[in-house]
Fold this sequence. Notes:
Elements: E1 2-8, E2 13-17, H1 22-31, E3 35-42, H2 48-59, E4 63-68, E5 71-75, H3 86-89, H4 97-106, E6 108-112, H5 125-133, E7 137-141, E8 144-148, E9 156-158, H6 164-174, E10 180-184, H7 190-201, E11 205-207, E12 213-217, E13 222-228, H8 233-245, E14 249-253, H9 261-269, E15 273-276, E16 280-284, E17 293-295, H10 307-315, E18 320-324, H11 334-340, E19 344-348, E20 351-355, E21 364-366, H12 370-382, E22 385-390, H13 393-396, H14 402-408, E23 412-417
Parallel strand pairs: 2-14, 3-13, 9-10, 17-18, 21-22
Antiparallel strand pairs: 1-22, 1-23, 3-5, 4-5, 6-8, 7-8, 10-12, 11-12, 14-16, 15-16, 18-20, 19-20
This protein binds uridine-diphosphate-2(N-acetylglucosaminyl) butyric acid.
Amino acid sequence: MKKIVINGPCRLDGQVEISGGKNAIVAILPATVMVCGKCVIENVPRISDVENILKILKYMGAGIRNIDEKTLEIDCTDIKNCEIPYDLARRLRASYYFLGALLGRWRDTTVAMPGGCSIGLRPIDQHIKGFESLGAKVDFERGNVHAKCSSLVGNHVYFDVVSVGATINTMIAAATAEGLTVMENVAKEPHIVDVANFLNSMGADISGAGTDVIKVRGVSRLCGGTYAVIPDQIEAGTFMVAAAATRGDVTIKNVIPKHLECISRKLSEMNVKIIEFDDYIRVIGSGVIESASIKTMPYPGFPTDMHPQMAVLMSLADGTSRVTENIWESRFKYVDELRKLGAKITVTGNVATIEGGVQFLGAPIRSCDLRAGAAMIIAGLVASGTTVIEDIEHIERGYENIIEKFRGLGANIRKIDVPENR
Ligand code: EPU
């Protein structure tokens, strides 16, 4: 069993390079299925979610070549249209993007229900609403989603919920539908814009990504090309919070500061010094950390994927803070683990009340999901003594070389592999 061991406390100092965006690449890779020709994708983060999507693409017969450490060439010209089995789909949430991509390419697809972090009910009714508006018939059968149509035809779709996944999935399928698709009440996250830019660079005609309305004019086919993935907003935010929590001084490179505004502004409110440059940002965490309140919202609101990390910082603040979680009802699982280190957090409904001024003490803890795992690492960096984190495969799903990156900033952190029964 792999574990992360941290000897704290430490003060982070130095520079760290942010990898390509997880939630962008996990949609872009399935979307390559739509492309006849070679897609060269740059700034690919080598995280386990990516490796699992590559397994699905290989299973379908895609040609995959590692050009260098961060660049992949994917050729889906000769893929077979096949069912994506449960054993492959369950490993990550984003396997649902194969539904939109295979529907767009073949008009017929069967994908097992996706897996992913256990952070609440994760319905896909809005994805289905999108596919059905384009003319597909969608059925559920023995754990599989089956979507089929004789032709995909552009239409008007108004989403009842602002959903990242439904926005991207419908946009992918609509890229090769006949005529115009108008999608309203869509998500606006940076990765929505990135997937639209990727599809456009392969020949699609998509406008409005990043606003409430996306228009997709269907094209008959997508051809190959080269595309570089945007930097990961949440990885950058995680290092920003870690710098602040350890009272460090960290320069975070390869970022788009605009994408980080929701996080930067909140940290500034908490008396953390943020200095923005063109493609890097410096975070200085000296002085008293002020308490704050956050309410998670779709972009440009405060991201739910930064909530657990912020709870660690709030535990160190002067006074009581509050987090209202509006997206995922089971995102509070990390609270029990943080309490083992000394956190004083109470949860009522979707609101966590966090008492500040805590001195964390190292202890054995678990990573319940990806972002909870990131929060556990930050807490371990701040805690006195040894913190051992289990179930770290969640962390490896979305953070590239996280141990090496924190070690480069001066943390005493390492990964160990111990036999299961010890
Ligand atoms: N929702 C519905 N119906 C749907 C889809 C979503 O009711 O058909 C609801 C969800 O239950 C949730 C809200 O809408 O309450 C937002 O869900 P969304 O569809 O936006 O989430 P997602 O696409 O499943 C992506 C990220 C998550 C991130 C959320 C919110 C990927 C692969 N995952 O999930 O990332 O929390 O958007 O920003 O892009 C993570 O990276 O740790 C992670 C969980």
